[in-house]
Design brief:
alpha+beta; six-stranded antiparallel β-barrel; 3 helices; elongated
Length: 276
């Protein structure tokens, strides 16, 4: 026997979304290639690949001939300053007993002021290398240069590349950075969206990301960059999103899915369930 039933037609909301596949990459806007500001030869490397470091933590140190030159100038300037200061004191004493003329005192004063300025400039030059006031005072007292220049991390993050090895000659901005540090609190998702969907996307839209390796986890992010052109072969546009990863679960190279709401939900008729 054939049973018939009547079901109601209802209004329902259908999400207006787009999906595509992408991959995870380091957030290059928050990655720093840490070069030495001066050339030299690497002595020690204090970090390993994957280490988490704080801002200001030492990464590696080098023997720097530029630092030796700056410290030598400081030692010389300190010696000249000491001599001219004593000469000025003696000039004042002699002037008080009318042993020298005023012009001799003026010359001693000029010499001391010039020596003071040279000494201050020499200290400033060594400060650029990261030496503390105490370290500079010790260099002057011992009259001995210290060629070791320590390169510290400019940000807190994770060591994502390490090419420095003892004995490596490094130069500012030349070749591969000895160490790269990245802030991994956020990562990039690089996705390629079909050409037909590109008018629906704009910078600032929220995205939901799922990784194949983490099927039970979802991540939220925001579109930060839309490609300037469409690939003529695939007819897709590159879309970059910044994704929050507070637990550091996403790793570069992971395959991910990109789910984005491109508009308000649409309402349409939906046939209710039949009861037989």
């Amino acid at each position: 026997m054939l049973f018939r039933s009547v079901v109601a037609v209802q209004q329902a909301e259908f999400a207006n979304r787009r999906e595509t596949v992408g991959s995870i990459d380091f957030n290059q806007d928050r990655s720093v290639q840490v070069f030495s500001a001066y050339q030299g030869k690497v002595r020690n490397v204090f970090v390993r690949l994957g280490d988490d470091v704080k801002k200001g933590a030492p990464l590696y140190d080098i023997d720097s001939p530029d630092l030796v030159q700056a410290e030598s100038t400081l030692i010389s300037a300190a010696g000249t300053r000491k001599l001219t200061t004593r000469a000025l004191e003696r000039a004042h004493q002699l002037f008080d007993i009318q042993g020298i003329a005023q012009k001799d005192v003026d010359q001693a004063t000029s010499d001391q002021q010039a020596a003071e300025a040279a000494y201050k400039a020499a200290r400033d030059a060594v400060t650029i290398f990261g030496k503390s006031e105490a370290e500079m005072d010790r260099i002057i007292a011992q009259r001995r240069t210290d060629a070791t220049l320590t390169v510290a991390s400019p940000i807190a993050g994770r060591v994502t590349a390490r090419n420095a090895q003892p004995g490596l000659l490094v130069q500012p901005g030349n070749g591969t950075a000895p160490v790269t540090v990245s802030d991994i609190s956020t990562v990039w998702m690089q996705a390629f969206v079909p050409e037909a969907d590109t008018p629906l996307l704009h910078v600032g839209q929220s995205v939901t990301v799922r990784a194949m390796a983490l099927p039970d986890r979802t991540f939220t992010g925001t579109i930060t960059t839309l490609g300037a052109s469409i690939d003529t072969t695939t007819h897709r546009m590159q879309v970059r999103s910044e994704v929050k990863d507070p637990r550091h679960e996403l790793r570069p190279g992971m395959i991910t899915s990109f789910d984005i709401r491109t508009g308000d939900p649409s309402r349409s008729a939906e046939i209710g369930r039949a009861h037989v």
